[in-house]
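User: Sequence recovery, please. Input:
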């Protein structure tokens, strides 16, 4: 019980100590350089199965769309019990740094980055992170955590022989853990608006819970040190959810504000995602989408209206059910 309380109140730490299969846990580092010419997502994690377990580091080049999946024996995964500090082979990941030494004939990746001005999502006993009170439920299929909505980076990486300076670039950090990804979901994120200090992270999915499935969503919009939260558990609702091959139009609202998100989809690369037996579900993710965000009061006063660049966007699964629910 003590361990469960600690991990619930610290979503960033490794939750998998002592977990039975099937179980996965992965952290998502998004990195864009100051000139906005290079975009990378690095995803370390572990999958624990009944017959096979493996640690991994995934890399997505957001410009070329190339992705690579680097497998390590599960025995080469180690993580602190108290803080977010994990090693996968020669690679180390913490809340404020990454150190990479991925040997690969096609996509070697080496270097170190440091993060500063971390902007964590608030955690309280009654609402331990972006999932709110759902974070206390011990039987959810998948959990989600926002570790840093926005931060500054320092350092360089060398990818496939190209040296990339990420100094003064912007980063974002989140994670997922549980038994498997939802059967259908939409996720998008951007922290590249006209000025610093703004971030959107939004997802909607089919959620299994106590023998039934419902459509749930969590949206965090952070602007000028103020956090606007729209979620199923807050009583907010989805007014519109429309999807085409080119666009996503999603509107959420509560008793105080209304948030419109109009996204232009773009080509991306394929990533591995967990099912209950393995890490072999292939999900298309782009880092080149754009999201027009408009936040208004219920009376119509415009609080924010701008376009987010270099947006991460994933659309996966039984979308007909997701859109219809």
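Assistant: Recovered sequence (325 residues):
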């Amino acid at each position: 019980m003590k361990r469960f309380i600690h991990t619930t109140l610290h979503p960033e730490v490794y939750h998998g100590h002592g977990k039975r299969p099937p179980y996965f846990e992965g952290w998502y580092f998004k990195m864009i350089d100051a000139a906005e010419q290079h975009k990378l997502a690095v995803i370390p994690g572990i999958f624990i199965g009944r017959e096979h377990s493996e640690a991994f580091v995934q890399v997505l080049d957001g410009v070329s769309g190339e992705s690579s999946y680097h497998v390590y024996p599960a025995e080469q995964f180690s993580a602190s019990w108290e803080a977010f500090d994990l090693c996968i082979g020669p690679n180390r990941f913490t809340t404020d740094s990454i150190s990479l030494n991925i040997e690969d004939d096609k996509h070697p990746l080496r270097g170190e980055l440091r993060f500063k001005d971390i902007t964590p999502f608030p955690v309280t006993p009654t609402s331990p992170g972006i999932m709110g009170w759902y974070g206390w439920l011990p039987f959810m299929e998948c959990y989600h955590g926002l570790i840093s909505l926005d931060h500054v980076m320092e350092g360089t990486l060398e990818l496939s022989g190209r040296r990339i300076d990420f100094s003064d670039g912007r980063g974002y950090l989140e994670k997922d853990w549980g038994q498997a990804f939802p059967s259908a979901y939409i996720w998008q994120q951007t922290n590249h608006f006209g000025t610093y200090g703004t971030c959107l992270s939004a997802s909607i999915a089919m959620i299994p819970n106590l023998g039934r499935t419902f459509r749930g969503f969590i949206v965090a919009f952070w602007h000028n040190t103020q956090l606007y939260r729209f979620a199923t558990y807050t009583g907010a609702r989805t007014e519109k959810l429309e999807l085409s091959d080119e666009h996503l139009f999603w509107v959420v609202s509560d008793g105080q504000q209304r948030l419109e998100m109009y996204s232009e989809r773009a080509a991306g690369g394929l990533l591995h995602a967990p099912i209950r037996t393995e890490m072999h579900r292939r999900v298309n993710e782009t880092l080149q989408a754009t999201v027009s965000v408009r936040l208004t009061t219920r009376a119509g006063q415009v609080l924010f209206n701008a376009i987010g660049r270099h947006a991460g966007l994933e659309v996966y699964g039984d979308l007909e059910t997701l859109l219809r629910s």
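The longest helix spans residues 2-9.
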